[in-house]
Amino acid sequence: MESNPRGQEGSPIFDNFDVDLLIRVLANTAFSPFFVFFIPIFYIFQGLKLSHPIIIYTSFYYVLISAFWFIKWYSRLYRNQGSLFFRPPSLEWNEQIVIITGGASGIGELLANTLAVRSVTVVVLDINPIVTENYNIAYYKCDVSKWEEVEAVSKKVIDEIGEPTILINNAGVVQGKPLVNLSQADVQQTFGANTLSHFWVLKAFLPSLLKNKSGHIITMSSALGMTGVAQMTDYCASKAAVIGLHESLRYELDKIYKCPQIRTTLVCPGHVQTSMFSTVTFPNFPAFKFLCPSVQPVTVVKRIIAALDDQHSQTILLPFYTNFIPYIRHLPSFLRDLVQWISGADHAMRKFVKITSRRPDEGPLPSGFSTKKE
């Protein structure tokens, strides 16, 4: 789910102090095996015997967190058919052809321009043209919710540019209406852009990836695909369907096509500061901003590029609180309702106004993400 920045202007230091920053610090200190390893060593050098409780407890803690990170690391290798000693070869960026749906604005636009700076050939499929100065970004007008248009454009892209190596299904829309107020056209548009477009793009371009036995598929879903909130029935359902598609596709690639070399990454962000959800209302108490911070588009783009560079299938959940969303449904009903109330999720869309085009006040791309080829 995407949103506007929350709150008023404040301290440049404390605006970015949230639970995500705290977790990053702890991951490199108290939860880091490398850091913790030196704690019992320090006490031993201070003269404590090996049988001292401090040495025993800190050593046990070291083994515990080391086991956690090892299991996490090995699980990732196993999922990617990896080796304990050899990682995939480095990605040759200048040889990649990337398809990005919905690449004319928001995250898609920033991602297209950022990849283009890396000498990647980028193909944007959108009903609106992308405004860019990068010569290696090609735009094709296409309503990706319609199979006929995707099929026709795919043939042109393959003929004129080449077979794609990376697919980024990013297109999406939101209506923000109660279910009864949704028109037939609203529901068709939501599922067409948010769900069916993934099927059509995969149906058109996946054969190229299968033929070459390599590639990467990025599936843009949402934290709301893992839960439900008021006035978002169509959006939540469409994003949930995309998560099911991603998981089923992974097993098809492994078991049916025998092609684990094609990587699949699922992206489920929380509130991203783009224009799509710029009129959403959030709670204004400090604890909410600390626990449920908004995400900058730059952060999402960096994580996607890191996943491509890493060449491992993975799930990207950000910010940190989104890791707990799948478990909310297992809470007792009164606790789940309490979480919904504290988060303000069921009231966030009350003043929502749908924006159908890019706003002038979105401004330039963030610092460090030039649109010009270096």
UniProtKB/TrEMBL annotation:
A GO MF label: all-trans-retinol dehydrogenase (NADP+) activity
Transmembrane annotation, as ranges: 21-45, 51-71
Function: Catalyzes the reduction of all-trans-retinal to all-trans-retinol in the presence of NADPH.
GO (cellular component) term, any one: membrane
Membrane-topology descriptor: Multi-pass membrane protein
InterPro entries in alphabetical order: NAD(P)-bd_dom_sf, Sc_DH/Rdtase_CS, SDR_fam
PANTHER family found in the cross-reference section: PKSB, RETINOL DEHYDROGENASE 10
Entry's localization field: Membrane
Name of the featured protein: Short-chain dehydrogenase/reductase 3
Keyword NADP attached: yes
Family statement drawn from the similarity comment of this UniProt entry: Belongs to the short-chain dehydrogenases/reductases (SDR) family.
Keywords per UniProt: Lipid metabolism, Membrane, NADP, Oxidoreductase, Transmembrane, Transmembrane helix
